[in-house]
UniProtKB/TrEMBL annotation, chains A, B:
It comes from the Bacteria. It comes from Streptomyces genisteinicus. This is TetR/AcrR family transcriptional regulator. Residues 8-68 form the HTH tetR-type domain. PANTHER family: HTH-TYPE TRANSCRIPTIONAL REGULATOR BETI, HTH-TYPE TRANSCRIPTIONAL REGULATOR RUTR. SUPFAM superfamilies: Homeodomain-like (SSF46689), Tetracyclin repressor-like, C-terminal domain (SSF48498). Keywords: DNA-binding, Transcription, Transcription regulation. The keyword Translocase does not apply. Coiled coil: none annotated. One of its GO terms (molecular function) is transcription cis-regulatory region binding. Gene3D superfamilies: Homeodomain-like (1.10.10.60), Tetracycline Repressor, domain 2 (1.10.357.10). InterPro entries: Homeodomain-like_sf (IPR009057), HTH-type_TetR-like_transc_reg (IPR050109), HTH_TetR (IPR001647), KstR2_TetR_C (IPR041490), Tet_transcr_reg_TetR-rel_C_sf (IPR036271). It holds the Pfam family TetR_C_24.
């Protein structure tokens, strides 16, 4: 039984609760009962807002996916040399990850057991592929070192960027501000840690 | 019930099975029953080899931890300028991660619910701290760029290195050989992707 509470949720505010629980328990490990308890409203109230937990997952990962793909339509991603575009996209990806932290965290953790999860993984791969294409174009321009394979560079770049979900926390206690983190990622990935 | 099978395990070979199941189901989600089924021997046969699943976890993460700490005693990690030592340790960490992939994967996934998990996380933090100290020494030598905070550099470096457990697979189908991967990590982290 849930504690009685007037249902003042919108699909949007309910999503905030659902994403937190999905990230804590894993999507597979979350039941409608868990969501009902966390939100403090009955399961039937939740069904009033959404068809079920898969719809909540779809809305949540869509938010992350839409924010990521929107980067590719920004002028910094569309104009200039490929190396500058890929640097721009890297910086903005870090910024989106920090701004939409719980949503991107969930996106990175989906495992492909349901149709929605498989769709999310597919869209994530498409985004990675768009970045890989930019890296390839930058390599073709002679702006990237030739001794690191582009596919491998893409994986390592995303490895570094995506690792932020494991430790970046927006609170002051987190230690690093967002701009400092975005700068560090771009500097390390493109210019390296070694002093010029 | 398990399928009857003669118990030809040693603690070592039983560990191989246990680590695979821990990585598949998560340590928390693995019961002695799961281990018994995967190994094809009875629970009491398992108890003949080890005191329980926590001992299997301890042996498994110890194998990863010992391999990582051993790097720090190698001459490449002890002699020369700090920047060369930290490059050496980075390369060797990638090599150990690839050589001991299931063990390091498990180490990186433990979450701190039991005494053994908390000990493993503590040892992992100690290793990260040793690498952070080397980076700090290299920065003090003027060999690392001053505009990336050392703590942040450590996190990003481990973010990149540790991401390998998500995609690196030793089979030919995996696409990249180990040396190529280790080279790419060191080049990207210290010299950056941009053409000299």
């Amino acid at each position: 039984m849930t504690t009685a509470r007037r249902d003042t949720y919108t699909p949007e505010t309910l999503l905030t609760v659902a994403v937190r629980i999905f990230n804590e328990r894993g999507y597979d490990g979350t039941s409608m009962e868990h969501l009902s308890r966390a939100a403090g409203i009955s399961k039937s109230s939740i069904y009033h807002h959404v068809a079920g937990k898969e719809e909540l997952l779809r809305r949540a990962v869509s938010r992350a996916i839409d924010a990521l793909f929107a980067i590719l339509d920004e002028s910094g991603a569309e104009r200039g040399r490929a190396v500058e575009r890929v640097e721009y996209v890297t910086r903005r990806t870090v910024e989106v990850l920090m701004a939409e932290l719980p949503y991107v965290t969930l996106l990175l953790r989906v495992r492909g057991n349901t149709k929605t999860e498989r769709w999310a993984m597919e869209r994530r791969r498409e985004f990675d592929q768009r970045v890989a294409d930019l890296l390839k174009a930058a390599a073709a321009d002679g702006d990237l070192r030739a001794d690191v394979d582009t596919r491998l560079a893409t994986r390592l770049l995303f490895g570094m960027v995506n690792s932020l979900v494991e430790w970046y926390r927006p609170q002051p206690g987190g230690g690093h501000d967002g701009e400092q983190v975005a700068d560090a990622v771009v500097r390390m990935a493109f210019d390296g840690l070694r002093a010029g």
